[in-house]
Design goal:
This protein is of the alpha+beta class and 563 residues long. It has helices at residues 62-68, 72-75, 85-92, 102-115, 128-135, 144-151, 161-182, 188-194, 209-215, 243-251, 257-265, 277-291, 339-352, 360-364, 370-373, 380-383, 386-400, 405-420, 424-444, 489-497, 509-524, 540-547; strands at residues 16-23, 33-42, 45-53, 96-99, 125-127, 223-228, 234-240, 268-273, 306-310, 319-322, 331-336, 455-460, 467-472, 475-478, 529-533. Strands 3-2-1-4-5 form a 5-stranded mixed beta sheet, sandwiched between helices. β2 (33-42) and β3 (45-53) form a beta hairpin. The chain is globular.
């Protein structure tokens, strides 16, 4: 992810990685990458290359072989994508990604990284196809072959990843020359923005002059946008990972009917830039409730996350997988990407520790059951073993907090016992549980404390400025949060270390909604966050050194009147 401020450097000072993928089909969801080529460009020169076959773990269709020349034998001994993720990320580094049809190549790269359970960072992206359309509208075709022919670029190994990436890199340098010599544009940020440029009166777009003028000010960064009517009333509020890309869609003649309705009623466009998509999501939800725009729906649905609920409202708590999080007196661990991920840990916990697994109706009968016979329950229903049960519950909390060694040791002992008793089916079941647990744990758990009781500072990686979100027993504090007059972020940290966190008691619906949005987002973007548990630091100064929150400069927030 690009750490330097892209808004302050020229294209000559920027690192670019041009990539091309050869794939087994056209759908990123159903097809795979079978060859990857990358070319590193800096200071107007080609510096380095990366090329590899990739085993797609599927058959290469005959028609794909006819186009690319790549067949099953070429990739049979090649590494699978999962083995290449570190090498690919190391090569890209802090570059701006470039491709001819970025939407296609990026979709495949993102899908492959998701299959490998590795987050593909949200790089700055530049599409030479989009630039070609903007810069050379007179050319009949803007395909890579047509563009290299137009510039007289030598294109070796057509429809092979490195050959196409090299041709795209040379095309990129030609486009830079046009920007520099004819348009006097040299800043990287301006070039990135140019690919989304809208011109009033074009065939694809119908833009009111006031809207087009404001559109030109939109950055390629996260934020909240809003439309006002002639009376100055806000009629719609939205959020975007990229303001310029999202708002652009409203002006397209092929826009959805709701978007066209908004544009017909809108007279003015405004926006507030945020550091990350997450704070844009949170701000959007809060602003919609505050302003109640006529064209917004108040019902916002967030991606479903799953949790492990510890039912503290019962005398002898149990574990339950649930998609509902609430401040209801119970403890919640997670979030987890899906129910299966949470259920794996529940099953492992049940086999490792001796909490009851029965329903309330069964428990109320107070009858001996087989779980006591196999030492999987302390049987509080018949012996009222409160102290023993609480000790087991303590072990479960350690396990759910990521300290899984005790659980693994317990399971291995049981597996050995079953093997010695020649109970091979039971031993195999335990072995499978251990393997699943070891493979799943690092991919499943996110917070190592109950969510509703967590004392944690979350760093959300932004470009180039990070966001910092503080969770204190259900309260949510966002540093430099523009929606509220005062965020109390710094004060909450000071109060925690002074032992006076109860100054901020009183969890409300806003906290719950922020928490739900936060949990859903970090569940899908785990590599974009870093967690710092306050208990690990003695002073605010130690925490500041570790996280950099005091040095964090505000993003380039364009304050627009939302009143």
């Amino acid at each position: 992810m690009q750490d330097l401020n892209i808004n302050e450097i020229s294209y000559k000072e920027t690192r670019f990685t041009v990539l091309d993928t050869e794939t087994t089909g056209v759908s990123a969801a159903n097809s795979r990458i079978m060859e990857l080529g990358m070319v590193k460009v800096e200071s107007g020169k080609i510096l380095d290359t990366f090329s590899t076959f990739i085993n797609p773990e599927c058959n290469i269709p005959r028609q794909i072989t006819a186009i690319t020349g790549i067949n099953n034998q070429h990739v049979a001994e090649a590494p699978v994508f999962e083995k290449l993720t570190s090498s690919i990320l190391d090569f890209i580094g802090d570059s701006v990604l470039v491709a001819h049809n970025m939407q296609f190549d990026y979709a495949f790269m993102k899908a492959e990284f998701e299959r490998a359970f590795v987050e593909f960072p949200e790089y700055n992206k530049l599409c030479t196809l989009k630039l070609s359309r903007k810069l050379f509208p007179e050319l009949k075709s803007k395909a890579l072959g047509a563009m290299v022919h137009h510039f007289g670029i030598r294109h070796k190994d057509v429809h092979r990843a490195l050959g196409d990436a090299m041709a795209t890199a040379k095309l990129l340098l030609k486009l830079f020359e046009k920007f520099d010599n004819e348009l006097a544009i040299t800043q990287t940020a301006e070039i990135l923005k140019y690919q989304y440029k809208i011109t009033a009166g074009s065939k694809r777009f119908s833009v009111k002059k006031t809207m087009a003028d404001n559109f030109e000010k939109l950055p390629d960064s996260p934020g909240v946008y809003f439309y006002k009517n002639r009376k100055g009333n806000i009629i719609y509020i939205g959020k975007a990972k990229s303001l310029i890309k999202r708002v652009k869609n409203y002006f397209s003649t092929s826009a959805q009917s709701k978007s066209k309705k908004i544009i017909r009623q809108a007279e003015n466009l405004g926006f507030v830039q945020t550091n990350t998509e997450l704070t844009a999501l949170i701000a959007e939800a809060e602003l919609i409730k505050k302003h109640n725009p006529s064209l917004n729906s108040q019902l916002k649905r967030f991606s479903q996350s799953n949790f492990i609920k510890v039912t503290l409202d019962k005398e002898y708590p149990t574990l339950k997988s649930t998609a509902i999080f609430d401040f209801d007196g119970n403890d919640y661990f997670g979030p987890f990407t899906n129910r299966d991920a949470s259920q794996v840990l529940i099953d492992a916990s049940n086999k490792s520790f001796r909490l009851r697994e029965c329903k309330e109706r069964e428990f109320s009968r107070k009858k001996h059951c087989y779980l006591l016979d196999i030492d999987r329950c302390t049987a509080p229903c018949i012996n009222n073993s409160t102290e023993e049960y609480l000790e087991e519950l303590k072990n479960v909390y350690e396990f759910l907090s990521g300290n899984n060694q005790k659980a693994v040791d317990t399971l291995l002992k049981k597996m050995k016992f079953y093997s010695e008793q020649q109970m091979y089916e039971e031993a195999a079941s335990i072995r499978n549980t251990v393997n699943t647990l070891l493979n799943q744990l690092n991919r499943s758990s996110i917070l190592a404390e109950p969510i509703n009781k967590a004392h944690v500072l979350i760093k959300v990686k932004g470009l180039p400025v990070n966001d910092f979100i503080l969770l204190i027993e259900g309260k949510v504090f966002i540093k430099d949060y523009f929606v509220v007059e005062k965020s109390y972020f710094d004060e909450a940290i000071e109060d925690y270390f002074n032992g006076s966190i109860h100054l901020f008691n009183g969890i409300d619906k806003k906290d719950l909604e922020k928490m739900k949005i936060l949990l859903a987002w970090i569940c899908k973007n785990r590599s974009a966050v870093e967690l710092y548990y306050l208990k690990d630091y003695a002073t605010p100064q130690e925490l500041a050194v570790a996280t950099g929150w005091q040095k964090n400069k505000k993003g380039q927030n364009l304050h627009v009147n939302l009143a």
